[in-house]
Amino acid sequence: MALISFTDKGMYCEAGQFYIDPWQPVNKAVITHAHSDHARPGSQSYLCHRDTLPLLKLRLGPYNYQTVEWNEPVYLNEVKVSLHPAGHIIGSSQIRVEHKGEVWVVSGDYKTEPDGISGVFEPIPCHTFISESTFGLPIYNWKPQHEIYHDIQNWVRSNEVAGKTSVLIGYSLGKAQRILQALEEVTGNIYVHGAIWNVHETLLQAGFKLPAVQRITPETPKEAFKSSVVIAPPSADGSAWMRRFTNHSTGICSGWMQVRGNQRRRNADAGFALSDHADWQGLLQAVKATGAQKIYITHGFQSVFSRYLNEIGIDASEVKTEFGNEEEETQSQDPTIEQ
């Protein structure tokens, strides 16, 4: 029997009697990171990295949590489990599972270029590697982070000169913190949507150092936004919440902006291909670095990526999961969005 099986509740280790990132409530859940498609409520207990804990509490509420440091082994029914950096978002981890000499690694979501915030992706030697393929097409080839940051900074400066508000769209957890990192050099006049404010405050209370921001409320005067920067989640784009910004330009921060047509379809003024996932080369490098004899592809461009791996002599298969939709903010979660 395989060390990890794919069930209707999620990835299950029968020998250890635990699930990894289950999408239904279970007794024991081991969590790679705090995005909503990987961390869901209702389980009896959760094991995660220490930096993920405050984010899980924010997202899920009070539960029975256990935390570990990276590379700190724990034993679940004689199965050795350890967490290792995935580089995706703060606290994101790969899960290494070892039993009777067999090693599997569940990567969750990951990126291979260090971002200075999320920990540095660490290839883990294993027999079987479970990988995403969100951007598993050769067209996805990211520019270095510092170049993308430079593009964002220049765009913000040009908007400031024109007296425009720069509205940057990105996920509240992961992308927003990287956008702030890019903005730190060019402005201290940063406003954020309530969903981003909640994550920001949680991270500050957990001891992370982040640039100062101001929360947008119904009382925030419209003139305050002139020549300022606003960070908002994708759920706010095109909503009534956006109407408070009159003379503004919108920039979307997403790997999907690598394809020019996506910027036009989203009716954005600018697109920055800033992604928290590995690009095509990053995925290939990660898979090869594990030395795994078997690869399972969970979500993304599964058929293309797995077919290519098989063509180059790496045994790969697709598996069906419920991962892949990180958009966790909805209008109902933030009372300011309809103002």
TrEMBL record:
Protein name in UniProt: DNA ligase-associated DEXH box helicase
Domain of life: Bacteria
Spans annotated as Disordered: 320-339
Key words of the record: Ligase
Gene Ontology molecular-function annotations: ligase activity; RNA endonuclease activity
SUPFAM superfamilies on file: Metallo-hydrolase/oxidoreductase
Membrane-spanning residues: none
Entry-linked Gene3D superfamilies: Ribonuclease Z/Hydroxyacylglutathione hydrolase-like (3.60.15.10)
Species of origin: Niastella yeongjuensis
